[in-house]
Amino acid sequence: MPATLTPTRRGFLGASATTLSAAAVAMLAGAPQLARAYGGASADVNILNVALGLEHEAIGAYELGARSGLLTKPGLDVAVLFQSHHKAHRDALVATIEKMGGTAVKSRSLDDYAMALSAASLKTQADVLTLAARLELGATNAYLGVIPSFKEPALAKVAARLAADETMHWTALATTLGRSLPGNALTFGA
User: Fold this and answer.
1) pLDDT tens digits, residue range 2-13?
2) Which of 67, 102, 144, 155 is most buried (most C-beta within 10 Å)?
3) CA atoms of 169 and 185, how far apart (whole Å)
4) Could you write out the DSSP letters of every residue in 105-167?
5) How many Cβ atoms sit within 10 Å of the Cβ of residue 121?
6) Comparing C-alpha atoms, which of 5, 113, 1 is closest to residue 50?
């Protein structure tokens, strides 16, 4: 994978804030006619592939957590539910990339994700859920980072809905971990 497509949440935030077009978000929102009006598919496919790489990573992280034997209820239930959400995100991204004429990046092996996420260092349920919370917070901030780039309010709304989904994941994980919710306003997207 080229360096520009290295799937990191920070990389996605930086790249998407300047290059994710309204066309890509329109496709994700199920509005292909609006997407065609905006154009710019090639750069969008590259950015969407970075996002897809992140969804693959999230699916892998939740799979590692579920298989670890470290999760008990309600942590296991949360992991399985959120993995299903990320699978839906993945499926939407793949469909969008293909509709735009691109080729979707493939998922890496579970062993690759285990190494990249330092899964061997996970010793407790709290460790697994803390990793998941860190990934969800990164996703929240990445999606919030693209909102200002949209001139069309409907497209900004789609990005906001994605950010809300990731924020809900983070909030549920923080609650499951017994952590306090943020005491300050404007915590996300900073």
Assistant:
1) 333 334 444 444
2) 155
3) 18
4) PPP--HHHHHHHTTGGG--SHHHHHHHHHHHHHHHHHHHHHHGGG-SSHHHHHHHHHHHHHHH
5) 8
6) 5
* 92-146 per-position pLDDT tens digit: 878 878 887 889 999 999 999 999 999 999 999 999 999 999 999 988 887 787 6
52 located within any domain: yes
**Residue 92 is part of a domain; what is its CATH number?**
1.20.1260.10
The pLDDT tens digits of the residues spanning 58-73 come to: 999 999 999 999 999 8
Is 184 inside a domain boundary? Answer: no
- Name, in order, each residue with C-beta under 8 angstroms of 183's C-beta and a sequence gap of 6 or more: none
Q: Running DSSP on this structure, what letter comes out for residue 3? A: G
| Domain count along the chain | 1
Distance CA 29, CA 159 (A): 9
Q: Would residue 129 count as lying in a domain?
A: yes
Question: Domain range for residue 143?
Answer: 3-176
- Is residue 102 within 8 Å of 50, Cβ to Cβ? no
Residue 107 corresponds to which tokens in the numbers above? 């998922």
User: Would the pTM of this model clear 0.85, i.e. be above it?
Assistant: no
Q: Do residues 173 and 136 make contact, with C-beta atoms less than 8 angstroms apart?
A: yes
Residues near 14 by Cβ (< 8 Å), separated by ≥ 6? none
Tell whether 187 is covered by a domain: no
